[in-house]
Amino acid sequence: EVQLVESGGGVVQPGGSLRLSCAASGFTFDDYAMHWVRQAPGKGLEWVSLISGDGGSTYYADSVKGRFTISRDNSKNSLYLQMNSLRTEDTALYYCAKDMGSGVDYWGQGTLVTVSS
Amino acid sequence: QSVLTQPPSVSAAPGQKVTISCSGSSSNIGNNYVSWYQQLPGTAPKLLIYDNNKRPSGIPDRFSGSKSGTSATLGITGLQTGDEADYYCGTWDSSLSVLFGGGTKLTVL
After folding, report:
1. Confidence of residue A70 (pLDDT cuts 50, 70, 90)
2. Phi, psi (deg, nearest 5) at residue B50
3. How large is the average pLDDT for residues A19-33?
4. What was the pLDDT predicted at A101?
5. What is the mean pLDDT of chain A?
6. Looking at the partner chain, which of B50, B86, B99 has a beta carbon nearest the beta carbon of A47?
7. Four-CA torsion A115, A116, B2, B7, nearest 10 degrees
8. pLDDT at position B94, please?
9. DSSP states of A90-109 as a string?
10. For the segment B6-60, what is each residue's pLDDT rounded down to a tens digit?
11. B8 CB contacts (<8 Å, ≥6 apart)?
12. Closest chain A residue to B8 measured between Cα atoms?
């Protein structure tokens, strides 16, 4: 059974930093690209970032480019999102999600990030 | 404002059929597979349809998907109160990003 468990969310002031983690199990982690997708309170889904299975390729939404960094440690079956220069508009539930080649198939339960002074 | 356009809401009576549209362009839907996701209140999204019209195991055949040109459609037949949820379409974009529609809230009257 595929399981994705996010952690690391919390309350941070504007301009601050936070590092999210996602622990994956139930599949061969390094065979799959992984995504971060976020959902602001009461809003729709917004794709944030993608990393290839070997970690060699990364892609970002324009809204986070230059501020967020996606990475993975295949020896630990873990995905990360380093978020710097956080803004109030980054407040959202952040989901870790597994890629299936033509989109996302499995999602974690999310970790909440609140950016507020 | 999402690049993929969905109606904000749809509604139908139990047992009836409903369709949800997702409109894009040649740089996204027109040249890529479409997926559909169901998000029940307070839960994470769940994959309903992938590769335009395929259902993952465990998804009932009441749910169907289709694509034509730069638009895609999710169909749900035999509506149940448990189908009340937000539904999102998703696809790749030529800029190597993933796009989601703005979401459609389904109400089963």
Report:
1. very high
2. -135, 165
3. 97
4. 85
5. 96
6. B99
7. 120
8. 85
9. G-EEEEEEEE-SSSEEEE--
10. 999 999 999 999 999 999 999 999 999 999 999 999 999 999 999 999 999 999 9
11. B102, B103, B104, B105
12. A44
- Chain A positions touching B103 (Cβ under 8 A) are 44-45
Chain B residue closest in CA terms to A98: B47
- B44 vs A44, A50, A110: nearest CB: A110
Burial A54-80 (b: 16+ CB within 10 A, else e): ebeeebbbeebeeebbbebeeeebbbb
The answer to whether A105 contacts B102, with C-beta atoms less than 8 Å apart, is no
B13 touches chain A (CB under 8 A): no
Interface of B with A in 17-76 (CB under 8 A): 32-35, 37, 43-47, 50-51, 56
CB contact under 8 A, A107 and B90: no
Kindly report, residue by residue over B63-102, the tens digit of the pLDDT: 999 999 999 999 999 999 999 999 999 999 888 889 999 9
